[in-house]
Amino acid sequence: MKANIVIIPGDGIGPEVTEQAKKALNAVADTFNHTFLFKEALMGACAIDETGNPLPDETIKLCEESDAVLFGAIGDPKYDNDPTAKVRPEQGLLRLRKELGLFCNVRPVKAYDKLIKNSPLKEDRIQGTDISIYRELTGGIYFGTKELSEDGKVASDGCSYSVEEIERIAHLAFVAAQNRRKKLTLVDKANVLETSRLWRKVVTELSSQYPDVTLEYLFVDNAAMQLILNPKQFDVILTENLFGDIISDEASVIGGSIGLLASASVGKENALFEPIHGSFPQAKGKDIANPLASILSAAMLLEHLGLHDEAEAIDRAVQKSLELGITTEDINSEKSFSTSKVGDFIADYIQNQEDSDVNFQNIHMGQSTII
Fold first, then answer.
1. Which of 53, 149, 359, 361 has its CA 20 to 30 A from that of 94?
2. Is 249 an active-site residue?
3. What is the pLDDT of residue 113?
């Protein structure tokens, strides 16, 4: 296969982690005889600094013409700490989602056995957790009308959803549930919000098209509690934009490290893949950031392209890095490896799985070399 992939490194640790994901993709290309053509583009604080625009038109054009987009991270302290800033990095990502029609955000949450000890939750509660969160991404309160009174004392944010917006993501969530454990949980606030009542009505009607999927409902406050009490009860979670933002970040701590959580944002014609962690400016340039979420995002990108064996090769490499302890300091502070060394091991393992034990010894000596 020949695929055009746009890489948007972004801000903070974004360039470092996407570089490791690119290594993994190049290893896949070499091993499975594919050609991946990479083009880099600007978005975020770096784009503001260079062009004055958080999302230059050239970036939009490149993304529209690509087969997939791999994104790093967005945000910078000089904007995060200045609430008066009129132009902000996050505006670039919100606009890109709209421009590309990326209405569905998918966030897998999995408890890896080797990381359970790192989780703040008890082992018996989280072991076996495997959730896929489907969050609507281009509607709701984030994109509603925003108003501030002239005296600055009253503010409002509008929230609206249409039947079409709900149906298109609900169909994807039902199909995902069919291919998993056949359970879908709709998270809403239908006892209070009119938009949530519409969500519940539309999803209930659609459920008749998927008789093999069990549909359940939870109010968002109860869902947040249940994620801590018993996360294993969930299979696919479907929810709107704001609730999905909150629920997915809460779920991210279950597995023990936010550094392993990938995501996909898909539309009818375009798709973007990114780790859910932020730009972590404190670690910028120190070669200590965990690249596994970005690498797993690359695996989701391959799945999107229909390259399932190739995606599985990346998943196996990540699993092996955890088994051997080839991880960054956020996972193993006593014996950690650099961002680039972890990336090197992942690429080596994809190309030479049978030599992984030799690689492990080489990395301990400061080098990742196939012998």
1. 149
2. yes
3. 82
Of 245, 287, 315, 355, the catalytic one is: 245
Beta bridge partners of 148: 155
What does the pLDDT look like over 319-337, one tens digit per residue?
999 999 999 998 888 889 9
Residue 341 is among the residues annotated as catalytic for this protein: no
Angle at 179 between CA 63 and CA 26, to 5 degrees: 40
Residue-wise pLDDT tens digits, 340-368: 999 999 999 999 977 655 555 555 444 44
Is 151 a catalytic site residue?
Answer: no
What is the Cα–Cα distance from 188 to 216, expressed in whole angstroms? 11
Known catalytic residue at 221: yes
CA 370 to chain centre: 31
* Residue 189 annotated to the active site: yes
Question: Is 110 exposed, middle or buried (CB count within 10 Å of its CB: 0-12, 13-18, 19+)?
Answer: middle
The CA-to-CA distance between both ends of the chain, in Å, stands at 29
Out of 82, 157, 221, 309, which one is annotated catalytic?
A: 221
Catalytic residue (one of 39, 67, 130, 142): 142
Which is catalytic among the residues 11, 22, 134, 189?
189
How many angstroms separate the CA atoms of 68 and 302, rounded?
9
Instruction: Check: CB of residue 350 under 8 Å from CB of residue 28.
Output: yes
> CA angle at residue 54 from 284 to 281, to 5 degrees?
15
From 30, 82, 157, 249, active-site residue: 249
CA distance 184 to 168: 15
Q: How far is the C-alpha of 116 from the C-alpha of 358, rounded, in Å?
A: 27
The string of pLDDT tens digits covering residues 251-299 is 988 877 778 889 999 999 999 999 988 899 999 999 999 999 999 999 9
Q: Structure pTM?
A: 0.86
